[in-house]
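Hi C.,

You asked whether I'd gotten around to modeling the 225-residue construct. I have! Everything is below, sequence then structure, no commentary in between.
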Amino acid sequence: MSRIVSILGGTGPEGSGLAYRWARAGERIVIGSRDAQRAAQAAQQLKARIGPAASIEGADNAAAVAQGDIVVLTVPFAGHAALLKSLKAAWKPGAILIDTTVPLAATVGGPATRMLGVWQGSAAQQTQELVPAGVSVAAAFQNLGAEILATDAPVDCDVLVCSDDEKAKQAASELALKIPGARALNGGKLENARIVESLTALLIGLNIRYKVHSAGIRFTGLPLK
């Protein structure tokens, strides 16, 4: 049986964009939400857009986590810790969590171009502290804009993958390569997620100043994959 990719916050812009891209690429997707009915509606809308061959369904967050071989966290930072604490008993043994969260000040009413301080160093490191032992954590996809993900256009952005676990790093890299135009780069240890997360605030500022919605990052001088 093929793996299941569960997306927590899958009814939001980032989560639904990733769900769309990965379902189109043949992944089995479960959209997670606080409201199972809302998740099911989002799944139906994406399936109607992609076609009947798409494997995509909706569930509440706990049910989505219980099914997921890979769980992708796309919720705002303000609800990040509370959600993970509520899901501690739901994880499959050996599951992988990919955290896309960015601690932007906008989640608590501040500007979107400013970062919040996180005691652990980054949102991803906070996640590592909050999930059960045996769940591997990677940080990735923070710098892919939701608006471009919702389209069929190739993305013009590298995906930096940070993790202390090679299995989690490989899984995130494989998913990155399922998105046309994206290139997965080894970002090193999970502690480097604080750098990658901060790039999102910079990209938001560039989008505002240049009146675009698709600013991305590219690293030169590296082998193309």
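If it helps when you're writing up: The chain has one domain: 4-210.

Thanks,
B.
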